[in-house]
Design a protein that fits this description.
alpha+beta, 6 helices, 271 residues, 5-stranded antiparallel beta sheet
Length: 271
């Protein structure tokens, strides 16, 4: 049965969808409603939430006219980036350029609950899939741009005005420089632990130990800088792969623990 599309400013797309647990006629009816709605509106892809069903379901129309069904999809790998020119039925008559992965690896379940996986190498198909998955987590492609730009776009929509050019979330973050330099320092600390394997004087080994003692606080300082710059980017961009708090905390913890471990090794080996 054809269902009514959820169109801006309807905020039901902001609901985070839930996984499908029962693979039965109820699920199959929802899938049929999604497909019927796609056919009615000549759409190439649709998420369940776009017709107000809050479930993790995505349908994509294939070139041969068939419809691929992705139940509880998860993107577990993404490779390469490109600027994807996109539009979506939720924001009528809007086109924006969004950074997307060129290829992705996906795990999902079919309508009978069987676990499957797929590698999507076609960048247009991959971008479409990523856009549909955005809806499953309560977002749209405007959540991939800066907050200021999103507000400008929504204001233009409200006033039926022109939509400004997008300021996209960068695919490379300057905070990565903090990580790169930290990794180089940790590498140097690791090399100093090999000093006893060579015929070096006690003075040289003592100097290397002193270097390690200077490097450790530098590692701490760089991770502090990394944290504050990450916070700055998180405020600038509402949703961005480089601005995920969990990832940032993981980066800080791993480098800090590595620095402490290497410093302890230097104390016992060189000190």
């Amino acid at each position: 049965m054809v269902q009514k599309l959820v169109i801006y400013p309807d905020e039901r797309v902001n609901i985070a969808c839930t996984d499908v647990r029962s693979f039965n006629q109820t699920l199959w009816d929802v899938i049929e409603d999604i497909r019927d709605t796609m056919i009615e509106h000549d759409l190439d892809a649709l998420s369940a939430i776009q017709i107000a069903y809050p479930y993790n379901i995505v349908l994509i129309k294939e070139e041969d006219g068939s419809y691929s069904e992705y139940i509880n999809p998860r993107i577990i790998g993404s490779y390469g980036t490109f600027d994807s020119k996109e539009s979506t039925v939720y924001y009528p008559e809007i086109t924006q350029t969004i950074p997307r992965a060129q290829s992705i690896k996906v795990i999902y379940e079919d309508r009978n609950g069987k676990q499957k996986s797929i590698d999507i190498d076609d960048k247009k198909y991959a971008a479409t899939f990523q856009r549909k998955v955005d809806y499953l987590f309560g977002g749209t492609f405007l959540d991939k741009v800066s907050k200021e730009h999103k507000e400008n776009v929504l204001e233009a929509l409200k006033n039926c005005g022109l939509v400004p050019e997008v300021e996209v979330c960068p695919t490379f973050s300057k905070k990565d420089y903090f990580v790169s330099f930290t990794d180089k320092l940790l590498f140097v600390m690791g090399l100093t632990l090999l000093a006893p394997l060579f015929d070096l004087s006690k003075e040289t080994i003592s100097t290397l130990y002193t270097v390690d003692k200077f490097i450790l606080p530098m590692v701490f300082a760089l991770m502090v800088g990394f944290f504050f710059y990450a916070q700055y980017e998180a405020k600038k961009y509402s949703q961005c792969s480089s601005c995920q708090i969990g990832n940032n905390i993981g980066v800080i913890i791993k480098r800090t623990v590595a620095g402490i471990a290497l410093a302890a090794g230097a104390y016992f080996i060189l000190g």
